[in-house]
Amino acid sequence: MLSEHGLGIARGRVIPGFGLSNLVVPLGRSFLEITYPNGEDPNPALPPVAAVQQKALGRASEPLVPVAWLVGFENAATLHRLANRNDLAVSEVPAEGAGYPGYTLAGFGPNLVRPWLPTLIHWPVPHEEKPGALTAPHTRRPTGILHLDIAGREEDIERWCGELPEGVRLVNGDAGPLRVSVGFHDGPPITLGIL
Q: Per the domain annotation, does 180 fall within a domain?
């Protein structure tokens, strides 16, 4: 389906413990991470991400359905301040070798219960080492994510993120991410998700 839209995959891997694998589609300053159940038994001590994804797939008619979203922060202090204000646990995820830099994560877990809230992330590396800057065999030239439609509560998202993130459009409901629009230098945008 991605290739029909001119998008290629930069890389993929197994996500240990979650019963999931992923694919990364770089889009310049942003990226899509496509995760899918890989048949492995998840670790019951970890958040039930695979079960959440199965539920999301069950409510949609197409295979590419937004399930969760990330908001990146260039400044780690801002992420820590927001995590403290919202009583969020902060995780320092170590690097996993070349091309997999370490990062700081907050909000992972609560956003599985309140899917309209993002996970907050900070990579302490330059843009060239982040997932959006990876190369992929695209046949079109993506400019990034134009819009992300979220069914959720504006005041919750603003408190969680410090402000409404750029490109986020809110709709009624509490289902979380519904669809994402990707722009291109060479043609019209595409929309993936629940239309």
A: no
Per the structure, the count of domains in the chain is 1
Q: Which two tokens stand for residue 28?
A: 């310049």
Round to whole Å and give the CA distance between 32 and 133: 12
For residues 55 and 49, is the Cβ–Cβ distance under 8 A?
Answer: no
What SS3 state is found at 93? strand
* pTM of the predicted model over 0.70: yes
Residues 106-135: pLDDT tens digits? 998 888 889 899 999 999 999 888 998 999
Residue 152 lies in a domain: no
The string of DSSP codes covering 40-91 is PPPPTTS--HHHHHHHHHHT-SSS------EEE-S-HHHHHHHHHHTT--EE
- For 109, the domain range is 3-144
**Which CATH number do you get for residue 41?**
3.10.180
At residue 70's C-alpha, the angle toward residues 67 and 72, to 5°, is: 170
Sheet containing 176-184: order of strands: 168-171, 142-151, 176-184, 187-193
Q: Flag whether 92 is in a domain.
A: yes
